[in-house]
Design goal:
Helix content: under 10%
Structural class: mainly beta
Number of helices: 0
Radius of gyration: 13 Å
Order of helices and strands: EEEE
Distance between the termini: 20 Å
């Protein structure tokens, strides 16, 4: 899943199919399916469904929030 916005402007999870490349230990290369700037949801993704509203709780650089934090 990647982070997107719905019609109302709320953050949502967007299902995104990817093609994996080589992996080493617990890291994998994503060969296809993401664009530059896409934000991949990694923690909690097994509980998500497409277009489900989300809240970012650990985001040190304040992306998606215009520096104000997710509300």
């Amino acid at each position: 899943y990647t982070v997107g916005k719905n019609e109302e402007g709320h953050l949502v999870a967007k299902e995104q199919r990817v093609t994996l490349g080589p992996s080493y230990e617990n890291r994998s290369v994503i060969d296809k399916g993401l664009k530059p700037g896409d934000d991949l949801i990694t923690v909690g993704s097994s509980y998500l469904k497409d277009n489900m509203r989300i809240k970012i709780v650990n985001n040190p650089d304040n992306s998606f929030t215009d520096g104000k934090g997710v509300q």
